[in-house]
Design goal:
With 81 residues, this protein is mostly helical. Helices cover 38% and strands 0% of the residues. It is built from three helices and no strands.
C-alpha cells in the first residue's frame, strides 16, 4: 500500500502508515511529500533536501523531540498518529 493510504481503522485521514524506513536527506517519494506538507515552509516535491531537513529539525524541536532531521518511527508517529 502507498504511504498516502490511511492506515486501516484510522480515526482520521491524517493517520498514515509508516513507510518502513527512516526518511532523511536523499529520501524521495510520496512519504516525503507527506512530511513536507506537515512541517510546512518547503515545496512538497518529494525530495528530502537541506530545506526539508531544516524544517524537520525545527518541527522536532518544537515537539520536544531529538532534533536529528530523521523521520523515523517515533517522529512519524508524532506527525501522523
Amino acid at each position: 500500500p502507498s504511504p498516502l493510504t490511511p492506515a486501516a481503522g484510522a480515526p482520521s485521514p491524517l493517520v498514515f502508515k509508516y513507510p518502513g524506513k527512516p526518511l532523511q536527506i536523499g529520501s524521495t517519494g510520496e512519504a516525503v511529500k507527506l512530511v513536507q506538507a506537515r512541517v510546512g515552509g518547503v515545496i512538497t516535491d518529494g525530495d528530502f533536501g537541506q530545506k526539508t531537513d531544516h524544517r524537520v529539525k525545527e518541527w522536532q524541536f518544537a515537539h520536544h523531540m531529538a532534533t536529528d532531521g530523521v523521520v523515523g518511527p517515533v517522529t512519524w508517529k508524532a506527525m501522523f498518529g
